[in-house]
Amino acid sequence: MLLLAPMAGYTDSPFRQIVKEIAPETICVTELISADGIKFGGEKTLEFLEFNKKKERPFIVQLFGKNPDFFSEAAKIVASQGADGIDINMGCPARKVVNSMHGSALLTTPKLAEEIARTTVKATRLPVSVKMRIGFKTYNEKQFLDFIKMLEQTGIQALTIHGRTTAQGFSGKADWEPIYLAKKHLKIPVIGNGDITSAEIALKRLKKLDGIMVGRATFGNPWIMAEIASALTGKKYTPPTSLEEKIPLILKHAKIDIKMRGRRGLLEMRKHLAAYIKGFKDASKYRSKLVQVESYDDIKKIFAEIRD
Ligand SMILES: Cc1cc2nc3c(=O)[nH]c(=O)nc-3n(C[C@H](O)[C@H](O)[C@H](O)COP(=O)(O)O)c2cc1C
Description:
Layout: E1 2-4, H1 13-22, E2 27-29, E3 33-34, H2 35-39, H3 43-47, E4 59-64, H4 68-80, E5 85-90, H5 95-99, H6 110-123, E6 128-135, H7 141-153, E7 158-165, H8 177-185, E8 190-193, H9 199-206, E9 211-214, H10 223-233, H11 243-277, H12 283-290, H13 296-307
Parallel strand pairs: 1-2, 1-9, 2-4, 3-4, 4-5, 5-6, 6-7, 7-8, 8-9
Helix pairs in contact: 1-11, 4-6, 9-10, 11-12, 11-13
Bound molecules: flavin mononucleotide (FMN).
The site of flavin mononucleotide has 22 residues, from loops.
């Protein structure tokens, strides 16, 4: 099983569509969406639920929050909008999220985490999964095992584990030993996450697990999902290496984003454009232009200039 990690500001519908086009086997998850926001019908929140029904299946929605009843109601709304699964965020380390006792703060309140998972499972016929970190301040094997076994008992159908503590944020290296340990203790599928940057690493990790989830390595390089997917199936795949080869897909990404969300799509696209050209000749010169584009034509013109 190969998954694209939920990433706020990145794994929106246009990016997910691009990943699915290159590697259709990928299961994509939305960025974190507020259960409270869905319950109260916040316009901006509901926009996060938009997806391309033809291209993005299975469509998994990640919810965050702390009120079990809101999870229950949000799960029903998400199901009615055609989602295929729900993932509960117990891993976000952002201060704003943790301070409100959302995201990875739930690792410190196992009773509430249990209630949220149980209530969500009960509220919907969709499969429910949880994404968590290996600990909050530090990794403690007993607490970790108690927590994951408790989650399994709630009826969730898969567990994704990012091999870092909340305190680590994104620093240091992901520790995969707790993830492998979890696999030994659980019957539900265990998906590992953290620092997968190549098909080789992905294959190695997957030998001991049911699935792997890839995040930051896809920034500017969605092709890595096809590299991994083909390595898993033994198929041969040569990813594009020159910017020339990459441009058609980059332009397609921009087109989808702008068509779907207008100017906001264009603004969201800027960071992707900067990521796509990272590492290429004169990248810094073009980067400053790409993060200021005002239209699809601007993007096309800059890439034509790069190509010359
Ligand atoms: C910009 C950014 C946004 C993220 N947003 C989310 C999110 O919305 N929900 C979530 O569960 N994890 C989120 N994460 C964590 C990733 O899903 C993933 O666990 C983490 O990046 C480690 O995987 P990687 O090393 O493959 O990137 C985010 C990470 C980044 C870098």
